[in-house]
Design goal:
Distance between the termini of chain B: 21 Å
Largest sheet of chain B: none
Helix content of chain A: 40-55%
Number of helices of chain A: 5
Distance between the termini of chain A: 32 Å
CATH topology of chain A: Rossmann fold
CATH architecture of chain B: Up-down Bundle
Number of domains of chain B: 1
CATH superfamily of chain B: Amino acid/polyamine transporter I
CATH architecture of chain A: 3-Layer(aba) Sandwich
CATH topology of chain B: Amino acid/polyamine transporter I
Number of strands of chain B: 0
Shape of chain A: globular
CATH class of chain A: Alpha Beta
Structural class of chain B: mainly alpha
Strand content of chain A: 15-25%
Shape of chain B: globular
Oligomer: heterodimer
Strand content of chain B: under 5%
Chain lengths: ~140, ~500
């Protein structure tokens, strides 16, 4: 059993990180930080350059979060997955039979989230596990 | 720290279904927009032989597409001209290739948005508004901004919608062709109809000069088709879904183009087409109205959606090439920025839009026809970067050309012949355009035709920028050309990302 956290450097992600660390500590479970590095917009020209840029960004972003979690004494690992964020989270969650998936929401309007397919929105529709949505702090 | 390398995101054959692959192949070419843009000028140039010229244009395209296919095999995941030419022929040509490919995108966006807005207005019957620059231009700019914003948000919601639209487009075009041919055959065309004949498939019917101008436009019509070939490679088994889809999309494209060309020529007759040649894509709108009557909105809708969808699908590759160049220090690093939340290269995307809008507005100040002159200039750029890619393929694979007859023809001779054809077309049309009489606006800029000034101007600006950037940051210019990894070529191992470790 594991707590899975979707982490990038977006505004909601830090609040979600704090909550995920808290949940992992209380349950005494390991934490997996997941970053989905597949470019939006599908395949096509110079797809690789875009994916490499995202992978680099993911490793950079998650390294800070990883340090933060380990400092709190949580057994944390990082997965930079070549899939779009929602799919990456679902895949890792299935792999480790996660207790809960934690994601940050950045306070966008529900209609915008539904229309544009935000990650929390997709997860709530697709996940077979509990999803914990953490609103960004002020 | 445990940050394992990401699993290799190879495209998996089963990840792309038959329909998806079919759509990608067709959508990248945007058949309705391409036909609307080129059918008028081609028919005016070669008369009844328009179907033949469209068929013949496919030949250089197909030869160059094999180059894309083989280059994609050694440098995986859809690198394009910039990455490949740099690896095969070094940084100078690579930079210019990347510049050409980005500028084709930037140049065509304005015209796509313009056509999208015009045909939408024609569709709802606002013909007056479609003719009024001051209504059309702000709407087109809004459309570019909206599409750019969608690209920055990186949304994928439109995928399903686009699938439906692309099939709608092809169906609308084929219905249009069928109705037009029937009306031409039973003599109910209000114009001067002629009976179709198989001899129209002869590309040489109108002589060499007309053929070469027609071919350059024809190549523009197939521009983008190489993505269908790259996809079909995702499986080596040609009988499986994506391979079949690649073949099918080619077949559908050829049939649609040739059917529409037959229909337009048969329905309108060559005289009417020549008389109306200066109307450019509106020839197609006019004929659609004549053929379909009250149902003409179906064809107009097909062209409008095709143009609007391509506005978006053109912004993405242009901004990605910008990103790729920035990551290799060939452009300022700022252009390589990725939006932390949307995961898209936002800076280069907005730059593409800004230049596209500036270009679109600027060219309109010069003349309404200058937009079409810029399309002709665009085919020069396309021919240039396709030719460059064909040569790069033969050079990158030079040690493997003599290994088998298949290698020699598919990797060496084919792409080189394709490049040769395109360079020949390029030379002929430069010669042609040096006479201002031959441009759409009929104006003279610096004593030659506007398209040549535009085309040459873009290269000169590119070379100036390249020299400037070379003086600012020489890191990219340290890259040295290499050859294809023999193990990958012979199938001993699969390709890895960044084979030469050049991308940092």
């Amino acid at each position: 059993m594991t707590v899975v956290l979707g982490y990038d450097e977006s505004p909601g992600a830090d609040a979600a990180l704090e909550v995920a660390i808290d949940v992992a500590k209380r349950f005494g479970e390991p934490l997996r930080l997941v970053y989905g590095a597949a470019p939006p917009g599908g395949l096509g020209e110079e797809f690789k350059a875009h994916r490499d840029a995202l992978t680099e960004m993911g490793q950079h972003a998650t390294s800070h979060a990883l340090a933060r979690a380990q400092q709190e004494g949580v057994d944390a690992t990082v997965d930079v997955v070549s899939a779009k964020p929602a799919m990456a989270l679902l895949r890792v969650a299935d792999e480790c039979d996660a207790t809960v998936i934690v994601v940050g929401t950045s306070g966008e309007s529900p209609i915008k989230g539904a229309m544009l397919g935000s990650t929390p929105h997709k997860l709530l529709q697709l996940s077979t596990r509990p999803v914990l949505c953490v609103p960004a702090g002020d | 720290m445990t940050a394992p390398a990401p699993e290799q995101a190879q495209l998996k054959a089963d990840a792309i279904g038959f329909v998806d692959a079919l759509v990608i192949g067709l959508a990248a070419t945007s058949p309705a927009y391409s036909l609307a843009a080129v059918i008028g000028p081609i028919a005016a140039l070669v008369g009844v032989y328009a179907p033949g010229v469209l068929l013949a244009s496919f030949v250089p395209m197909m030869l160059i597409a094999t180059a894309f296919l083989y280059l994609n095999r050694v440098d995986q995941d859809c690198g394009t001209t910039f990455s490949w030419v740099t690896r095969a022929m070094g940084p100078w040509l690579g930079w210019i290739g990347g510049w050409a490919i980005t500028m084709t995108g930037v140049l065509v966006i304005g015209s796509l948005a313009d056509v999208g807005v015009s045909f939408s207005l024609l569709m709802v019957g606002a013909d007056g508004a479609a003719d009024n620059t001051w209504i059309r231009m702000p709407l087109a700019i809004l459309l570019i901004l909206l599409m750019t914003w969608i690209c920055v948000l990186g949304t994928d919601i439109s995928a399903k919608l686009q699938n439906a639209l692309i099939f709608g487009q092809v169906a609308a075009l084929l219905i249009f062709a069928a109705v037009a041919v029937v009306k031409a055959l039973n003599g109910s065309s209000p114009l001067d109809e002629i009976t179709p004949s198989l001899s129209w498939l002869n590309p040489f019917g109108e002589g060499g000069a007309a053929l070469s101008s027609g071919l350059l436009l024809g190549v523009f019509a197939y521009w983008g088709w190489e993505s269908a070939v790259n996809l079909s490679e995702e499986t080596t088994d040609g009988a499986s879904a994506p391979g079949r889809a690649g073949l099918w999309s080619t077949f559908i494209l050829l049939v649609t183009y040739i059917a529409v060309a037959f229909a337009v020529v048969a329905f309108a007759g060559t005289e009417w087409l020549t008389d109306n040649a200066d109307e450019e894509e509106f020839v197609f709108a006019e004929i659609a109205t004549q053929v379909m009557g009250d149902w003409s909105w179906v064809v107009l809708f097909a062209v409008a959606t095709s143009a609007i969808a391509s506005t978006q699908t053109t912004i993405i590759p242009a901004s990605r090439t910008g990103l790729s160049m920035a990551r290799r220090h060939a452009f300022p690093a700022k252009l390589g920025r990725i939006h932390p939340r949307h995961h898209t290269p936002d800076v280069s995307t907005w730059w593409v839009a800004a230049i596209a809008i500036a270009w679109y507005v600027g060219i309109y100040q010069v003349s309404a026809n200058a937009l079409f002159d810029s399309l002709t200039a665009l085919s020069l750029l396309i021919a240039f970067y396709y030719a460059l890619t064909g040569v790069a393929c033969a050079i990158y694979y030079r040690r493997h050309l003599l290994e088998s007859a298949k290698n020699l023809f598919l990797i060496g001779v084919g792409p080189l012949v394709g490049s040769g054809l395109l360079i020949w077309l390029l030379g002929l049309s430069i010669w042609d355009m040096s006479d201002p009489e031959n441009s759409y606006s009929g104006q003279s800029w610096l004593g030659v035709g506007p398209p040549l000034v535009i085309g040459a101007g873009i290269f000169l600006v590119g070379i100036a920028l390249m020299l400037f950037w070379r003086s600012q940051d020489a890191r990219y210019w340290q890259e040295r050309p290499g050859v294809a990894d023999p193990d990958i070529v012979r199938g001993g191992k699969s390709a890895i990302s960044d084979p030469d470790g050049l991308e940092g």
